[in-house]
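Pilot study result, target chain (573 residues):
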Amino acid sequence: MHLIGYLLKGYRAIFALSILAGILSGLSGVGLIYLISLSLDSSKTLLFIRDWLGWIFFGLCLMLVLSRVVTNLLLAHLGQTTVFQLRMQLTRQILRVPLRRLQEIGVPRLFALLTDDVASIAGACELLPLLLINFAIVASCLVYLGWLSWSVLILIGAMIGFGVLSFRIAQRKALRDLQAAREQNDILFSHMRGLTEGIKELKLRRAGRKSFVSESLEPTAAAYRRHYMAGMGLYVLASNGGNGLFYVAVGLILFVLPEWSYLSSEVLTGCVLAIIYMMAPLSVIMTNLPVLGRAGIALNKIKEFGRQLSAHSDDGVADSACTKPSSGQLEFRGVTHRYHREDDDRCFALGPIDLTLRPGDLVFLVGGNGSGKTTLALLLMGLYAPESGAIRLNGEPITDTNREYYRQYFSVVFSDFYLFESLLGFESRELDNKAREYLTQLQLDHKVKIEDGRFSTLNLSQGQRKRLALLVAYLEDRPFYIFDEWAADQDPVFKKIFYTEILSSLKARGKTVVVITHDEGYFHVADRCLRLEDGKITEIFVPGAKGNSEKALPSRVREEACEQGAEQYAGAR
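Predicted structure:
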């Protein structure tokens, strides 16, 4: 019952009112049973209330309806408030955690927490009003049975005690199975992600498709089903066994108890009515307890995840302290970063890196796959923190306290970029007009419109979507720009526009631009070309590059140097 404890901890007053309304509902139901038993035997009805019996009956009906409405509304509000706050809390915690830590946790686990676990808690919260009302009915019926006959109450109490004990034993095993099913669900989400994101590859590879289904997806789904059905089966067995006990209790009251103790027909009638009346609410409680069990598991998962995230928060300075960044000089001195590659016990080391970037610099970063280019870019933009060395912006050291502010100096288009449907975080009234101008420059005005800061469509090719991502970077107007293989998805015409016009315009505006690229045909556009190989950085000579003093060399020497530079680049690849 972790969920109820969590609600009591945070919302004691609302929960107390809900319980009070639930008790009134239960008492109203028992009062109706009592009035029905009185009406069946008019000789026992007191003379002064006989004429009011109908009014009392309808009054209790009204109180029953109103108390149930109040209970449902209060607990519905409580449940949805809880789910809302859990979602917002998880979202804020995820946004505060360093990227490296989130990558270690993995997308499937994050997705399972935000969808499956929160949905489990939401489902349980929706059931709480029903469970509370039915619990109040059961409790009121027990009080009524005690008033009618202590012997009947003791018998029913013994039955309930035996049923609860049996249920708890079954519940422990059931929760273990449901916990195992929850663990399999993380793996299942990973496979579902592979199914949706890799559907084109699976369509083209018949053998791979069969292997994916038979060796990955099916075993995990089967394990989830096995654990889930084992846990739910125990819950179903326990709940139906409890119902069976009540039928046994009715039989004992009707046929066995009168042999040991005198019970009038009125008492027997009242007891049987009360037991039959409480059987349906008790069945509802027992049937839906697994939902609370799963919600408790989900809540524990979210709490554990929240503790892990809180231990790695990197909030940095408050938003109120952030001003619009201005141009600056960025220095790396002895910066290193280490991490383990997947399925490899060896540790990849980047650095030590010594690098200086000045306003107006246009730098190309080249190297083979796995050489550390993207890692260096993540260090540059502050998404990774260096393990050693120093990063300085305008002479000021970058630490955990100001890294969040430092990130606001960078506009980036990642190779695996994500494009939002709206222009988030922009408040300028002239935003739409500027965006439309950029759409024309990027040759997208015939396909996409921007109104009230929203794109009319994102149903575009990958290259066109990258142009929209570039548009967002333009609008941010920050001192540093990083493009990770931006031109890889562009046609030759627009690739040329990117290297010869777009980059030049950014440089002319005093922006510092770092381009990760393999397009050696445009190396001459850069001021400098840096090569990364096995985590080490070197500067390569590129004839014709704007930062080279040798660009005035005779043509023959330039051709030989070109060949040398191409060989250096080929070695990096």
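One observation from the pilot: The longest strand covers residues 330-340. A full batch analysis is planned for the follow-on phase.
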